[in-house]
Write a structure and sequence with these properties.
four-stranded mixed beta sheet; 6 strands; alpha+beta; two-stranded antiparallel sheet
Amino acid sequence: MSTRQRRASTAVSIGVVAALAATLTGCGEGSGVNSDYAQICRDNSTAKRLPDDDCNNHAGGAGWYFLPLANRGNTAVPAVGERASGGVTSLPAGKTGATGVSSKGGAVSRGGFGGSGSEGGFGG
């Protein structure tokens, strides 16, 4: 193999690794797996979880609510219609909230690919 062929092969390898890294990073950010809080919509008067659309559409009495995700273990996220407590109404400075938490609720863990538990996690 000539020096020119080796350089071309090295350049292709670096390009493949960079593309793979960008793809994996994009997947992680899309599911919010590295966030500090699970962001859900909550009725401010009843404390019950609402569909995210109620907050997106600025429905009366609805507001974003942030449940802290444990560094180890799972955080119980209520399903829509269940009471949500133990969280905060605004994100602390420098913290991030994961959107798209399943409307079915369940156990959500921080740091993995998506949630865990029988019906927990993100999406849906």
